[in-house]
C-alpha cells in the first residue's frame, strides 16, 4: 500500500478525532452518563466478586471491566470533579471510534482498491450520527460495533478462530450482535470444496469453543461460582433479565412499532391470543432464516457483509423493547457496503439522518419527561417526524433486501471470495 494512502487514512482518522473532541465536554445524556460514572467509581472501589452487587449494573461483564478501568484511571489521576469523570467515560468510546474507520478501510480494501476504500473510512469517521452516539451522548456502543467489525474482518481473512473470539468480546460488552453468530457458523458450511469445508468447520468449532472459554474467563471474576455451567447460567440469567427491562413495543426507537400509536406501549398485549412480543420474535427468526438461506446460495464475502447489515437492521426494526441507539449497529456496516454498490451509499446517508434524528429526539424526550411541559405528550411529541423516519428505515431495509436478492449471475468459485482488486 502506498505511503500516500496511509497518510490519507491518518488524516481522516485525525479529522474524526478532532470532530469528536469538540463534543467531549458536552453533558450529553445526563442520566446515562451519571449512571456510568457511578458504575465506574463503585467498580473501582470494590473487589470483582462484589462488582454487580456494588454497582447494580445491568451490562455484561466485559462492559463492567471497561467501567472499572475508567474508574481506576480516574482515581489514579486524583481527579474529583464531574467534568473529568464525564470525559473519562467518553474516552474509550472515542478511541474505538477512531479505530473503526481503519477497520472499515481494511474491510473495504478486500473488495476495492485502497484509494476507493478510503471512502468507507470517511463515511464512518465523519458520520454525525456515530459521533453523536459516542462523543455527545456518551454511550459505549462503539466498543461493541467496532469490535464486531474487527470480528467480521477476521472472518473475511479466514481467521475463523480469531473471528469467533473477537465476536465474543463484542457480545460481552453489549449483546445485540449475538444475532450474527448463526451467520458466522454458516460461513464454514457455505464452502463448496469438501476439503475446504472440513477445514472451515474444524476452525469454526475451535473458534466457538474459544469464544465460550473467553466468555467464561472474563465473567469468572464477577461470580462466586467457579464452574463453567454456573458462570454461564448466571450470565444467561442476566441476559434474560436485561432483555426485559423495557417491556414495551419501542423505547423511542424509530422502528416498525413507531408507526402504531405511542412509544412505550406494552409488548405483552395479545394479538390472536399471543403476546405481541412472541409474534415479533417469530417474525425476526423468519426474516433471519430467509437472509441466512440466501447467504448459503451466494456464498461470497459481499453476501456475508450484506447479511450482517440486514440481520442487524431487522433486529432493530422487528423486535420489540428496542432502544433508539440500536440502529447504529446496522449503520456501522453501511460504509463498507457503500463502496460496492450505490444503493448502500443511499442507505448510509438515510440511516445516518434517521439515527441522528432519533438520538436528538431521545435527548429531547429526556427533557420533556423531566420538566413535563404542558400540552406535550412525552410518549410521542413529534409524530410526523417519528413516522417519516420509521418509514425511511423500513424502506432502507426493503431496498437492502431487494439488492441482496437481485440476480448476480453464476455463483463464485469454491472459495466463495470475490476476486481481489489491484
Please provide a brief summary of the model.
The protein is mostly helical. The chain has helices spanning 3-21, 30-45, 51-55, 61-76, 82-108, 114-125, 128-137, 141-156, 160-173, 181-189, 194-219, 228-242, 276-298, 301-318, 328-331, 334-338, 342-371, 383-405, and strands at 250-251, 270-271, 274-275, 322-323.
What does this structure look like?
The structure is a single chain. With 422 residues, this protein is an all-alpha fold. The protein has one domain. It is built from 18 helices and 4 strands. The protein has helices at residues 3-21, 30-45, 51-55, 61-76, 82-108, 114-125, 128-137, 141-156, 160-173, 181-189, 194-219, 228-242, 276-298, 301-318, 328-331, 334-338, 342-371, 383-405; strands at 250-251, 270-271, 274-275, 322-323. A hairpin with a 2-residue loop joins strand 2 (270-271) and strand 3 (274-275). It is globular. The model is unreliable at 409-422 (pLDDT under 50).
Name a few traits of the molecule.
422 residues, mainly alpha, two-stranded parallel ribbon, two-stranded antiparallel sheet, 4 strands
Amino acid at each position: 500500500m502506498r505511503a500516500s494512502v496511509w497518510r490519507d487514512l491518518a488524516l481522516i482518522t485525525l479529522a474524526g478525532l478532532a470532530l469528536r473532541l469538540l463534543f467531549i465536554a458536552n453533558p450529553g445524556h445526563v442520566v446515562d452518563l451519571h449512571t456510568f460514572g457511578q458504575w465506574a467509581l463503585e467498580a473501582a472501589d470494590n473487589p470483582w466478586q462484589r462488582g454487580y452487587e456494588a454497582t447494580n449494573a445491568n451490562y455484561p461483564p466485559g462492559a463492567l471491566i471497561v467501567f472499572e478501568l475508567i474508574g481506576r484511571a480516574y482515581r489514579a489521576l486524583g481527579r474529583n470533579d464531574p467534568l473529568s469523570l464525564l470525559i473519562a467515560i467518553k474516552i474509550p468510546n472515542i478511541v474505538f471510534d477512531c479505530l473503526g474507520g481503519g477497520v472499515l478501510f481494511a474491510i473495504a480494501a478486500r473488495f476495492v482498491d485502497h484509494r476507493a476504500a478510503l471512502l468507507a473510512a470517511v463515511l464512518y469517521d465523519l458520520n454525525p450520527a456515530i459521533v453523536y452516539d459516542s462523543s455527545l451522548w456518551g454511550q459505549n456502543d462503539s466498543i461493541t460495533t467496532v469490535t464486531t467489525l474487527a470480528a467480521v474482518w477476521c472472518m473475511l481473512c479466514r481467521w475463523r478462530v480469531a473471528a469467533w473470539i473477537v465476536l465474543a468480546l463484542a457480545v460481552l460488552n453489549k449483546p445485540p450482535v449475538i444475532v450474527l453468530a448463526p451467520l458466522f457458523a454458516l460461513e464454514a458450511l457455505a464452502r463448496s470444496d469438501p476439503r475446504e469445508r472440513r477445514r472451515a468447520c474444524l476452525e469454526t468449532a475451535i473458534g466457538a469453543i474459544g469464544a465460550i472459554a473467553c466468555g467464561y474467563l472474563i465473567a469468572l471474576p464477577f461470580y462466586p461460582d467457579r464452574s463453567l455451567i454456573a458462570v454461564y447460567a448466571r450470565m444467561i440469567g442476566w441476559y434474560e433479565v436485561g432483555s426485559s427491562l423495557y417491556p414495551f413495543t419501542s423505547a423511542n426507537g424509530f422502528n416498525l412499532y413507531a408507526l402504531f400509536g405511542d412509544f412505550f406501549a406494552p409488548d405483552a398485549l395479545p394479538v390472536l391470543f399471543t403476546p405481541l412480543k412472541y409474534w415479533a420474535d417469530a417474525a425476526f427468526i423468519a426474516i433471519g432464516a430467509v437472509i441466512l438461506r440466501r447467504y448459503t446460495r451466494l456464498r461470497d464475502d459481499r453476501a456475508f457483509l450484506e447479511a450482517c447489515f440486514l440481520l442487524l437492521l431487522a433486529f432493530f426494526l422487528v423486535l420489540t423493547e428496542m432502544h433508539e441507539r440500536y440502529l447504529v449497529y446496522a449503520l456501522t456496516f453501511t460504509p463498507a457496503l457503500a463502496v460496492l454498490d450505490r444503493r448502500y451509499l443511499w442507505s448510509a446517508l438515510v440511516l445516518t439522518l434517521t439515527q441522528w434524528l432519533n438520538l436528538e429526539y431521545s435527548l429531547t424526550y429526556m427533557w420533556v419527561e423531566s420538566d413535563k411541559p404542558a400540552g406535550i405528550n412525552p410518549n410521542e411529541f413529534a409524530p410526523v417526524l417519528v413516522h417519516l423516519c420509521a418509514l425511511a428505515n423500513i424502506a432502507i431495509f426493503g431496498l437492502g433486501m431487494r439488492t441482496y436478492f437481485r440476480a448476480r449471475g453464476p455463483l463464485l468459485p469454491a472459495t466463495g471470495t470475490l476476486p481481489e482488486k489491484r
